[in-house]
Design brief:
Blueprint lengths: L10 H19 L3 H17 L9 H31 L2 H5 L1 H18 L8
């Protein structure tokens, strides 16, 4: 029994799609944003390589490319926003000293928690 070739199978396009989804999931976890950049760049590379000799990318590769580009934009935005927020709240000397930064963050957290309304009535 002979196997017929599958013209729609393209492992590079499948890899681009899977890595694109992984990059988006890495952003949603918020702790693994460096992985999002790595997964997105690999997905973009595989999407481009999936073309082979033709001019058109497979649909899976286009999907992976679009999600990866979105992931890169969102990751860059989140990192820039975090840095701007950090430099807005604290000065450079505090940021460069880990102990001073930890103390400043703890003080900021405590002052923020004291400003929240307690809600409910006292017993």
């Amino acid at each position: 029994m002979e196997q017929t070739p599958h013209p729609n199978r393209n492992p590079m396009a499948t890899a681009a799609q899977i890595l694109g989804v992984l990059s988006l999931l890495s952003i949603l976890s918020l702790f693994y944003w460096p992985y999002a950049i790595v997964f997105a760049s690999m997905s973009i590379l595989f999407a481009v390589l999936s073309r082979g000799g033709s001019f058109k990318m497979p649909d899976k590769a286009v999907f992976g490319l679009a999600i990866s580009a979105f992931s890169v934009v969102i990751t860059v935005f989140l990192v820039a926003f975090s840095l701007i927020l950090l430099f807005t709240l604290f000065d450079l000397e505090t940021i460069m000293d880990p102990e001073a930064l930890q103390e400043a963050l703890l003080e900021f957290y405590n002052s923020w928690m004291n400003q929240l309304p307690a809600g409910g009535k006292p017993l």
